[in-house]
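User: Predict the complex with pyridoxal-5'-phosphate.
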Amino acid sequence: MQFSERILKLAAEAEAALAPRFAEVDRIAFENTQTVMDAFREHRVAATNFDSTSGYGYDDRGREVLDEIWAEVMGAESAIVRQQIVNGTQALTIGLFGILRPGDIMLSVAGKPYDTLEEVIGLCGNPGDGSLRDFGVDYDQVELTADGKFDFATIEEKLRTYAGRVKMVFVQRSKGYLNRKTLSVAEIGELVTFVKGISPDSYVVVDNCYGEFVETSEPTAVGADLIIGSLIKNPGGGMAETGGYLAGTKRAVELASYRLTSVGCGGEVGATMGQNKPMYKGLFYAPHTVAQAIKTAHLAAYIFEKLGYPVEPSWNEERHDIIQTVITGSPEALCAFCRGIQSGSPVDSHVTPEPWAMPGYTDPVIMAAGAFTQGSSIELSADGPLRPPYTAYFQGGLTYESGRIAIMAAADAMAKLEK
Ligand SMILES: *Cc1c(COP(=O)(O)O)cnc(C)c1O
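Assistant: Here is the predicted structure with pyridoxal-5'-phosphate placed in the model:
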């Protein structure tokens, strides 16, 4: 690959400026690795835990130990980690349907949830398809304030007005496809305390996608009842081939497990079919892999900021998830960005991404993904819905070095467009 002189210089300048940030990212990765390895040691992870089961998967010791260490690492009482869960949306669906009952209210307090949840909740899609709304579950939301904080006054008012009907307070930790700030674990902790003070029986449920291992604790450690995520994002470390997880209080995880399989069977069944090893290996790698992705995001922020594009977070800002947004300003620039990333990927570098209607998304989306695992976004990937201001959402990078290559390719592709 050939890079322009300008971009080579800019990348070197970025690394010099980012040295203190990178040191902090390494410190967090070290602390999280210690947490993971302590859990492995405490629960005596052994080679026999990687044995495969089929059929019902009764007495799958590897599955049980993985659930236990996952709970421990997340600061939770219990967890279910399963290769049967196809993506983050399904994991979230399991959590929502597991807890909510007819007549309950789901109150989203960080604004609109992730695009793919709109059909699950029943905010769009066909009546009768089986959304929460079809089952008599109501939904309401509270926007974040203009500076991206929880609107405690409005949350309190809703909790009081609905008088005990709010079974679930729902928080999306990461910005997802929204131009807003990502919430920190400390902020979510404050919210949990606040909600429990007014409505102690409400479950606080966190969409934890893209947040795992970015800080040294997870929302469950500060009182969230349930956190939910995908194994082809952060906590799979780029090693898990597929899967999702739910971690939280014993009761919340039990309810979710009844929805995952059936009431009664819960988490005690489920064949692992050879997937235990990549899931264990993924958890082992996750703190390190997440650090690689965060360094790549810092570098991207620096480079695109200097090239004059609005970015969020800014290059020198502390991170709460692995997502970097770059406001490209036009459909052409968004496509050039994604095509540059694709050309700098290890797999399918020769293909040209095109905008496409995606199931579950309302606008056409362009995606760059040259990943070993299909759809994996802890691996280098970029995407953006084709709507103003044409924001590119960039995340991942299994290695910082390969991430750096792709960022430079994207910057060069956009520079060509200017000419
Ligand atoms: C990725 C993501 C999801 C759902 O993910 P899929 O795995 O694509 O189904 C949900 N919420 C957030 C914030 C996400 O980033």
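The CA atoms of residues 243 and 252 lie 19 Å apart.
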